Amino acid sequence: VLVGWHGSVVSKHCKYQLPYKPQSPFPKCKPGCPDLSPAPSGSPLLANVYAHLETALEQTCTDNLLGCAYRAAGVRDFTDFGFIAEAMGGLFVGDVDKSLLEMWRGNLTGGLREQWQRGYG
Q1: In whole angstroms, what is the distance from residue 54 CA to residue 72 CA?
Q2: What pTM, to 2 d.p., does this model score?
């Protein structure tokens, strides 16, 4: 039995086994089992990329930091959401084609800005 980050008890035998081991900057980070739903176990990463990104944040206990960064980016005249995409994109440097990564960063930055302008968050 493992104790999760928020004190929840989880089983050692998780439904999903990640093909990588996320590294947390927090020594006391003890996340629960990864949840890649609704895709079945073994689905290709790119077919379920949103869930892998969310899982990476949860498994490194940085998911709350992203929420804080998003809310901070919309304060007053500071509406540059690019630093979020830059930080997340850094996870893929060297593993993803540079031009594809730049397009992804631009799309994520634009999507976050649009969400904020529509009042989400």
Answers
A1: 20
A2: 0.60
